[in-house]
Amino acid sequence: MKTRLPLVAAMVAMTATPLAAFDLSEMTEEERMIFRSEVRNYLMDNPEVLLEAINVLEQRQAEAQAANDVALVETNSDELFDDGYSWVGGNPDGDITIVEFMDYRCGYCRKAHPEVSELIESDGNIRYIVKEFPILGEQSVLASRFAIAVKSVEGDAAYETVHDLLMTMRGEVTEEALSAMSEEQGYDTPAVFDAMNSAETEAIIAQNRALAQRMAISGTPSFIFDSEMVRGYVPIDGMREILAEVRAEG
């Protein structure tokens, strides 16, 4: 097989004034054609160069995204970690705070739910915050309004119960189904439904959506582990690895 010159050497060989030839604008049309042909031939003979370049690009993009995410978390830390209205579970004095943006109709949120619960219980040192972020239609909105209203009327323990029930609920989310759920738990159903339609409940959902937009979060589930953002479902072993890395860095 023909041995090809490295690109720099090829360019030197192509012109009597090599320094000028490195400036494409100084090349003649013939030199450009030769140069392009040599580049193509080199890449065809050495396709691994493209893979190396793609890997480097992806690594740089990932690093830039991670740095940007850290900045976003820092800028929005008050609303993420201490907004005054989101439910806080786990260990309130935990050394790591996990924030989850979730939707009750999201299949991956439902898949993550038991794993997040197991993680919090087995670790024992996690502060966990839920951000109601209904993005999958009217049933999602209805479920979030109900959960927020239950918290407002019946308190944090009731919210935790309803959150679990909604995450495992089968069938359509309707006012009738939510009313039955409320009655089964012994809640003040009329007060809960009044709170569902209140300006305060609407404001919480609107604020969570605005926060998600600022955080460049468009899907569920999305997590923040202290300063590290994770978009999408992560199995429990992956979450444990993230926790270990965050603790090691801290």
Structure at a glance:
The chain has twelve helices and five strands. With 250 residues, the chain is of the alpha+beta class.
Any overview of this molecule?
The protein has 250 residues and is of the alpha+beta class. It is 63% helix and 10% strand. The chain has helices spanning 7-14, 18-21, 29-45, 48-75, 77-81, 107-123, 138-154, 156-168, 175-185, 189-196, 199-214, 236-249, and strands at 87-90, 96-102, 126-132, 222-225, 228-231. The chain is elongated, with a radius of gyration of 27 Å. Strand 4 (222-225) and strand 5 form a beta hairpin. The termini are far apart. A 5-stranded mixed sheet has the order 1-3-2-4-5, with helices on both faces.
List keywords for this structure.
12 helices, alpha+beta, about 10% strand, about 65% helix, 5 strands, disordered N terminus, about 250 residues, 5-stranded mixed sheet
Give the helix/strand class: alpha+beta
What's the shape?
elongated
Strands, count = 5
Approximately how much beta-strand content do the residues carry? 5-15%
SSE string, helix = H, strand = E?
HHHHHEEHEHHHHHEEH
Terminus-to-terminus distance: 55 Å
* Largest sheet strand order: 1-3-2-4-5
Main sheet: strands, sense, barrel: 5 strands, mixed
Poorly predicted ranges: 1-5, 7-21
Mean pLDDT: 88
Helix fraction by DSSP (H/I, runs of at least 4): 55-70%
Count of discrete alpha- or pi-helical segments spanning 4 or more residues: 12
What is the alpha-carbon Rg in Å?
27 Å
